[in-house]
Write a structure and sequence with these properties.
With 379 residues, this protein is an alpha+beta fold. It folds into 2 domains: 1-274, no CATH class; 275-371, no CATH class. The chain is built from 19 helices and 8 strands. The protein has helices at 3-19, 34-45, 53-57, 59-62, 65-68, 109-128, 143-150, 196-200, 218-224, 231-237, 246-249, 254-259, 277-280, 284-290, 300-315, 321-325, 333-346, 349-357, 365-378; strands at 24-28, 74-81, 99-100, 132-135, 154-155, 161-162, 170-177, 240-242. The protein is elongated, with a radius of gyration of 23 Å. The chain starts with a helix and ends with a helix.
């Protein structure tokens, strides 16, 4: 293909991408650079991936697009702006209400973006004649390094992509193609001496700038973590019941995202600042119905209730005590254990001692340990 033909293809892609709701598009080579594999390998070796074992299992494919698909010649990276219309940190002040990460306040972005990527890739393949594959965060693709290499932004100190024109609120997707397209210039780092994203982290999840320990991250703890939330992080969770926006929201480049003119994904009104009380009574059917089409649904009712109960404990709201108590005999040990902790924080020693007399020994060892610690603190 001639250079002029490739340029026309890129212009076509940008026009069609904008029509589909993407705010930016750029191209890079599939070569990830020699440093990416080493950094990912170190991340796994330090066990900072926690229980996300797939990161270790797909390390080679994840760090090199040519291992994932040897025929790929160009990677088309796309970004979609999901900047909120209000500061998400304001939710943290309303402790009896839930704080759900901005990205999860509407339909699952995987479904939204993948459908639009397939449409764009199909149009591109029809014009260019090459093969295409699309990826949205569900395959072993390192979207952020590829987006930086393409010039969409740079990886900030919070390990997320930052754009000078869109801030930190970006969904990413990619189209791999066998067609050769001229790559765009990589973006350089513009974080400077700013530490806002590092300093605001409630759990000190950043061992150093540009490094993250997922095991300490509230997003990991509330979403990927399948067991009880470690006690050392429960107070720091506050009312965050799904994800955490603090490091993203603190980024000063977000002022440009707020000013961006393109259409953005709009939050469901009932997920902006919902009361914790409405979630505490949810059975599995009600949970699935309420979060139908939402990424929250993927963690399941039990993990979700675990998070809600921790938020209830942190709320300091005595009105939530009856609902928490009602979950003590729940079928899920994950929920029962979280209910014990929430009640131990919300009530006094006499209340917990009285509750314990009627409970008997729980069949689950972790729940028994929650009771032991609750009673030891009460005593």
């Amino acid at each position: 293909m001639t250079d002029a033909g490739a340029d026309r293809l890129k212009k076509f892609l940008k026009v069609e991408a904008r029509a589909l709701g993407f705010c930016d598009l750029a191209v890079t080579r599939p070569d990830p650079g020699s440093d990416l594999h080493r950094r990912l390998e170190q991340f796994v070796a330090l066990k900072r991936h926690g229980s996300m074992q797939w990161l270790a299992e797909t390390l080679d494919r994840r760090s090199n697009p040519l291992v994932l698909w040897p025929e790929v010649r160009s990677v088309i990276m796309l970004a979609m702006n999901y900047g909120p219309d209000v500061d998400p940190l304001e939710n943290l002040e309303h402790r009896s209400n839930a704080s759900i990460s901005v990205y999860a306040r509407n339909r699952d972005y995987h479904d939204i973006i993948k459908g639009r990527l397939k449409q764009l890739a199909g149009q591109f393949a029809a014009r260019a004649g090459g093969d295409v594959k699309v990826f949205v965060d569900t395959a072993p693709v390192m979207e952020k390094p590829l987006a930086q290499a393409a010039g969409l932004g740079w990886i900030g100190k919070h390990t997320n992509l930052v754009s000078r024109s869109r801030g930190s609120w970006l969904f990413l997707g990619s189209i791999f193609t066998t067609i050769e397209l001229a790559p765009d210039a990589a973006e350089t780092d513009h974080c400077g001496s700013c530490r806002a994203c590092l300093d605001i982290c409630p759990t000190d999840a950043f061992p150093a700038p540009y490094q993250i320990d997922a095991r300490r991250c509230i997003s990991y703890l509330t979403i990927e973590n399948k067991g009880p939330v470690p006690r050392e992080f429960r107070r720091a969770m506050g009312n965050r019941i799904y994800g955490c926006d603090d490091c993203l929201a603190a980024c000063p480049w977000n002022k440009y995202a707020a000013a961006a003119s393109e259409a953005k994904l709009v939050a469901r009104d009932d997920l902006r600042s919902p009361p914790l009380a409405q979630f505490l009574s949810m059975d599995d059917q009600a949970f699935r119905a309420f979060f139908s089409g939402s990424p929250v649904k993927r963690i399941g009712r039990d993990r979700f209730l675990r998070n809600v109960l921790i938020a209830a404990g942190n709320s300091g709201d005595p009105a939530l005590v009856p609902a928490c108590r009602a979950l003590l005999p729940d079928a899920s040990p994950l929920v029962r254990g979280a209910a014990v902790w929430a009640l131990s924080v919300l009530t006094g020693p006499a209340y917990m001692q009285g509750l314990a007399q009627g409970q008997g020994g729980d069949a689950d060892g972790q729940v028994r340990e929650e009771w032991r610690l609750a009673l030891a603190e009460a005593g």
